[in-house]
Amino acid sequence: MTAIERDIVIIGAGASGLTAATELRKAGLTVAVLEARDRVGGRLWTDDIDGAMLEIGGQWVSPDQDALKETIAELGLETFARYRTGENVYINAAGQRTRFEGGIFPVSAETEREILRLIELLDGLVAQTDPDRPWTHPRAKELDEISFGAWLENETTDQEARDNIGMFIAGAMLTKPAHAFSTLQALLMAASAGSFSNLVDADFILDERVVGGLQQVPILLAERLGGDVHLGQAVRTLRWNEDGVVAVTDDLEVHACRVIVAVPPVLYSRISFEPPLPRRQHQLHQHLSMGFVIKVHAVYETPFWREDGLSGTAFSPYELVHEAYDNTNFGDSRGTFVGFVSDEAADEVFTLTPEERKTRILTSLSHYFGEKALTPVVYYESDWGTEEWTRGAYAASFDLGGLARYGADLRTPVGPISFSCSDLAGKGYQHVDGAIRMGRDTAAAILASAELV
């Protein structure tokens, strides 16, 4: 067993942990980053699959994501706009396919009015929601005790309006059924993006990508940290007291003054804390769980949909693939779709064989884009539910009542232990931007603490 000493030990080499380590190193402190995987990046992962560069994890950059954009610029990376020229596609409950332009789906006039009314209503509630303290909303307890699905049912009898509004929060973001999370959790999701209007605007949320892939952010951060990043080092035990911590892996011990646990909350239980964490944290962490989504990648010889005047953007709460986008790489002559199968629909298709699942998913894509969508040259499913060190996607969210009950303690340090990841963020919640913000904030709080001044 090798033992080393550092000022701060960081558990997890995702964007949050690496950002915190970078900030602490800038301030003159020594660090060690311990990562269970054989790569850095956490939920950012760019890889070559059958000759195609695919963004297996997170990939998009939004205009309001200042922390991420600053980091991208500081690292010398370039971005490019998502392809969105042409008409979008919408499929209704009857299976009718309609091409359209603009942000509102081609629904009946009555349903359109209901969708716009619900968006306005949600924008009003979001305006009262501080993303860093959603539990301070004047109706926090009430809104946290009703599921988003039930809230929609109370607000409108228009099923198509409910289905579409629900899709943006449930399927597209929290990746849980709308009956499984609270309205307050939905408001936090929207507030983290500035408004519900921003959240439902694909051209805002999914604005740009990084040339060469977003995993370059953690890769370049880790390169600057050099030998202070230790891969394949799952922390089994964390011994702590007011004098410091010892993080123990299978073959390494790191003795430090403080520790930052920079992994998703669902993984805290993989670490044996000695002594155990306080009762409050034990209860709190049990009320958080990951969502579940399959990110589908389909690469074609050409972006054939563009020739037909289509943008590659498609939506339907009634399709297996509830949303799809042109995900063609910068400078690539081939065309790529990315599509998403979420929550209960993902559960269902994982009862099938891989070939049956592939056929079902590609058939759903073909409903939007025609028979050519059935025959990609590369096909891949990002299944984060099988990742031992993630266990779902995109992030952890509270069960009913959990956010108002426990949210105020979500980021509270315990002695020398701090917590930092995108799951805990306010602005930028469950996005890389939030991970970077949390990394910066956690490092700043440690640097401001008396024992390290």
From TrEMBL:
<comment type="similarity">
    <text>Belongs to the flavin monoamine oxidase family.</text>
</comment>
<dbReference type="InterPro" id="IPR036188">
    <property type="entry name" value="FAD/NAD-bd_sf"/>
</dbReference>
<feature type="binding site">
    <location>
        <position position="16"/>
    </location>
    <ligand>
        <name>FAD</name>
    </ligand>
</feature>
<feature type="binding site">
    <location>
        <position position="340"/>
    </location>
    <ligand>
        <name>substrate</name>
    </ligand>
</feature>
<dbReference type="InterPro" id="IPR002937">
    <property type="entry name" value="Amino_oxidase"/>
</dbReference>
<feature type="domain" description="Amine oxidase">
    <location>
        <begin position="16"/>
        <end position="447"/>
    </location>
</feature>
<feature type="binding site">
    <location>
        <begin position="35"/>
        <end position="36"/>
    </location>
    <ligand>
        <name>FAD</name>
    </ligand>
</feature>
<protein>
    <submittedName>
        <fullName>FAD-dependent oxidoreductase</fullName>
    </submittedName>
</protein>
<dbReference type="GO" id="GO:0016491">
    <property type="term" value="F:oxidoreductase activity"/>
</dbReference>
<dbReference type="Pfam" id="PF01593">
    <property type="entry name" value="Amino_oxidase"/>
</dbReference>
<feature type="binding site">
    <location>
        <position position="235"/>
    </location>
    <ligand>
        <name>FAD</name>
    </ligand>
</feature>
<keyword id="KW-0560">Oxidoreductase</keyword>
<dbReference type="InterPro" id="IPR001613">
    <property type="entry name" value="Flavin_amine_oxidase"/>
</dbReference>
<dbReference type="InterPro" id="IPR050703">
    <property type="entry name" value="Flavin_MAO"/>
</dbReference>
